[in-house]
Design a protein that fits this description.
The protein is mainly α. It has a single domain, classed as Orthogonal Bundle (434 Repressor (Amino-terminal Domain)). The chain has six helices and no strands.
Length: about 80
């Protein structure tokens, strides 16, 4: 699984636990719904750290809290 898909899955997990829909996340974060749907779209390859930060701000979590999971900790280096 690529990093971008892991980011999307992490947002889905947090939203599911909080009962938040994608449109609600967009409103909380002050971004357009298309930004959130684009980030969740598996066909899109990149998501910016600025977008991740805005979404985390909307969820009232830090980037550290967002990325502090066994899944992210187990990522292999991109450079080989």
């Amino acid at each position: 699984m690529c990093v971008k898909d892991m980011v999307a899955d992490r947002f889905r997990e947090i939203c599911r636990k909080r009962g938040i829909k994608a449109n609600e996340l967009a409103n909380l974060a002050g971004v357009t719904p298309s930004t959130v749907y684009s980030m969740l779209d598996s066909r899109r390859r990149d998501v910016s750290i600025v977008t991740i930060k805005k979404l985390c701000d909307g969820l009232d979590i830090t980037l550290g809290e967002f990325f502090s999971t066994p899944t992210f900790d187990a990522l292999e280096q991109e450079l080989k």
